[in-house]
TrEMBL record:
Residues 1-148 form the Dynein heavy chain tail domain. This is Dynein heavy chain tail domain-containing protein. It comes from Cirrhinus mrigala. Pfam families: DHC_N1. It comes from the Eukaryota.
């Protein structure tokens, strides 16, 4: 319980920032979030297992999707001016891609000789399927590409 509390406490600032900012302002926060998640993965005794980190990552995906839904206003998307609607769709795709790209960049760094390695401890890679994390985002991005 102490391990969980200690490591989830480090996410409070990221969660608050994600909740407070508008969807269009989330992109700069994403690399710091993944850096924190990578540190949790390498330092926590509880969150160093794929099902547990996948759950955390999925929760952030859900938060991102919720923010995108508020930003896109699905029931109004086809009623607004064409350019405004297209800008919103493109921005949503851009933020989702930034999220996925940052995941992959940090996944690539989680190797024994990478920046998250620690003397005497083996860094376990994120060797789980990204589909476990991004299933909902991928479905939404597919719909956004169709709309675009």
């Amino acid at each position: 319980a102490e391990d969980i509390d200690l490591h989830l406490r480090t996410l409070r600032r990221s969660i608050a920032a994600f909740e407070e900012r508008s969807f269009t302002d989330l992109e700069p926060l994403i690399p710091a979030l993944f850096h924190t998640l990578a540190l949790i993965w390498t330092h926590s005794h509880f969150y160093c297992r794929p099902p547990r980190i996948v759950t955390l990552l999925t929760e952030f995906c859900n938060l991102l999707i919720d923010k995108a839904s508020v930003y896109l206003i699905p029931e109004e998307l086809f009623k607004m001016e064409l350019e405004e609607g297209m800008d919103r769709v493109r921005k949503a795709i851009q933020v989702f891609w930034a999220f996925k790209r940052s995941f992959q960049q940090h996944r690539d760094k989680l190797i024994p000789t990478g920046p998250y390695s620690r003397p005497g401890l083996m860094v376990k890679p994120w060797d789980f399927s990204s589909e476990l994390v991004f299933h909902r985002i991928d479905c939404i991005m597919e719909r956004l590409h169709m709309i675009e």
